[in-house]
Batch of 4 targets.
Target 1
Amino acid sequence: DAGVIQSPRHEVTEMGQEVTLRCKPISGHDYLFWYRQTMMRGLELLIYFNNNVPIDDSGMPEDRFSAKMPNASFSTLKIQPSEPRDSAVYFCASSAGRNTEAFFGQGTRLTVV
Amino acid sequence: DAKTTQPNSMESNEEEPVHLPCNHSTISGTDYIHWYRQLPSQGPEYVIHGLTSNVNNRMASLAIAEDRKSSTLILHRATLRDAAVYYCILRDPPHSGTYKYIFGTGTRLKVLA
């Protein structure tokens, strides 16, 4: 398996634009997580899904952020409208059940100018 | 969520053993102790986890105090490729209603040639 695949690897966008980050989890994994990493706040859990259903979105910073998982092999994290303070590295991770480790993607580095 | 405390940074010489400490004085009886590491420009990767007994795998060993209020990740022979940020995380047990990885600030390990 190629691991967790995120796209794009880098994204530069202007303030106010819509940004969509994509994630393909490892096949067969039923948990999917979205994290955000900044120097100031470290790694923050934004939301996680189980069997395509959002379980906990308490980490989503505000209504500008939304995440979907239309099927077991694809998830998106959307920011609309984007702001400079959203600049960060966004990681997607997946795991096969509760008692197994999470596998992280390479991340998407988002820069909002 | 129970908190963990780790030193901000540590140094080690190459080929020497490294002991990375973690304090978790508010750990509950069913929290699992997980360790992840993050290499430069990569997503976090799983290292090891345990509940009460000491654990060994090909990457490292995990020593858990008898009262479970602290643990130590042991790298038996540090290499330059082990330079990373190491995170100690407490995870809810498999039967709990939540399944979160909450990352702290971690320990930045520097390995000297």
Target 2
Amino acid sequence: KQEVTQIPAALSVPEGENLVLNCSFTDSAIYNLQWFRQDPGKGLTSLLLIQSSQREQTSGRLNASLDKSSGRSTLYIAASQPGDSATYLCAVSADRGSTLGRLYFGRGTQLTVWP
Amino acid sequence: NAGVTQTPKFQVLKTGQSMTLQCAQDMNHEYMSWYRQDPGMGLRLIHYSVGAGITDQGEVPNGYNVSRSTTEDFPLRLLSAAPSQTSVYFCASSLIFLPGLNSPLHFGNGTRLTVT
């Protein structure tokens, strides 16, 4: 069964820092990987989606990379702001068999950016 | 554009009661799904549907039923509530079954359920 791990579980940084969130997965047979943001009491918002054939995706100050063979992804946030404070989750989509299309989520990294 | 709408936002049930969590989307999405989110467990897939009339089980389907009579609606039924079903439930949808480059997963704001 696919296992998704996110490190660190929590991160507290001052405003302006560049930071990296890590995601690893045990089964490299994935269709894609998504990064989500979750604010307290809210649902998840999709930030970036990387297809298994791609190496990275960028959106504004966010850059996500994917190394499928090693089972790793990183989310890079440039020039962090207090508004970036949230929980960030990664999820991988299985690409075969009875689990085709299912998403497996990590437990998230809780980010706090202080002014 | 409402997106994915879940009702109710909060619910308290007694053990053994049944109820239905509602989910509706107005984006003409084929794929709809239900997740539960528990502290320290991450999100786990309960049931999903790839189109009207088609449903399938996820990782943790026991104690839950679903149906998909229309493209827009995907209700989740708790048959006989148990304290272990205390959780936050999220409905999510995407345009196609396999979320592609332009078809990320859209989430509702969740239903917080407590079973006493």
Target 3
Amino acid sequence: EADIYQTPRYLVIGTGKKITLECSQTMGHDKMYWYQQDPGMELHLIHYSYGVNSTEKGDLSSESTVSRIRTEHFPLTLESARPSHTSQYLCASSDDSQVSYEQYFGPGTRLTVT
Amino acid sequence: SQKIEQNSEALNIQEGKTATLTCNYTNYSPAYLQWYRQDPGRGPVFLLLIRENEKEKRKERLKVTFDTTLKQSLFHITASQPADSATYLCALVGNTGKLIFGQGTTLQVKP
């Protein structure tokens, strides 16, 4: 099992609410990622970070924002949730020194916006 | 734009047989290609990486091939078991280490 954690695992919330999805890893990895995945579909990169105070938007446009104040913590925030944000959100991390480019994934947060 | 295609239809095979999954890509020349396993409600788990200069890679009952001319990777599970039932994702590795995923193929191994 990878040492990467996401909370909550499931979240049902009403439209307009502000939410923060938590992601933490204890492996000391510099690189961290957020993906969005709909059922039966591919993972789409929405945010990534190469280290503390470094964040970039991914290939899929997202209204969410992220921050990276500590190496181990990479939270994702939605200021005003909408039904279109309903999806599975997966957090991952990787170690630059690994030649396999392996990414370690958390269990995911399944978000439903009503 | 870059595109990765995996069989969208589920693959159903009998226990003990070899499962073969296909990953095709266009508009990209990756130096590396990865395969992951994803179980329902879980995050993907890394299985194998193959480099562009490697034709084949093996790990226990798993075998991956990489044909950069055909722009295709094949993923084989020999002597398949019901516990191998899962969705298998291929991913191209970009220059910065970012991954581009296919949508995955669901494998069902029946006893």
Target 4
Amino acid sequence: AQSVAQPEDQVNVAEGNPLTVKCTYSVSGNPYLFWYVQYPNRGLQFLLKYITGDNLVKGSYGFEAEFNKSQTSFHLKKPSALVSDSALYFCAVRESPGGGNKLTFGTGTQLKVEL
Amino acid sequence: DADVTQTPRNRITKTGKRIMLECSQTKGHDRMYWYRQDPGLGLQLIYYSFDVKDINKGEISDGYSVSRQAQAKFSLSLESAIPNQTALYFCATSESGTSGFFGEQFFGPGTRLTVL
């Protein structure tokens, strides 16, 4: 069975500072990993994904994520946070082979970026 | 995402009532999903459908049923609503084939359901 853990319920960062939102996963096979963002009163929006290849994946809005197979992690990062980045962030995993195109989501991390 | 719409956006109902949440998409995707979101629990998969004739239970299907009326429409029903079904409900879609194989999903804006 596939699972995802987001160990931090909330992350607070000052604007202009780098941010990291942590995610670890567990799968039997190879992982397909995703980050989604949810703004208030909106559905989830896709940010980026790791399928294969380069361990550093770049996505929307200046976000990137680093896949680390030995640590089974896929942390979301941004070099310089903006107040507008404040939102709820979800990590998700799909197992390959198998998984049936079903994503398993983490419990979410609330990011607050303050001036 | 305006390509995936959900109606209603908000609904308050009473225990024991039947309620239907509807989802429509113009993305042309074969695959559709229903999730519920509860604070601190993330998203849990209720049902999913890979095409009109294929419907599958997710993690928490008890108390729910679905209907895939067409490629573009996927509705979720609560036959007899109970208070612990109070949650935010999301519909999502994804492609089939090579693109859909990687799992990227597109979400509607959500329906906030309150069962009194």
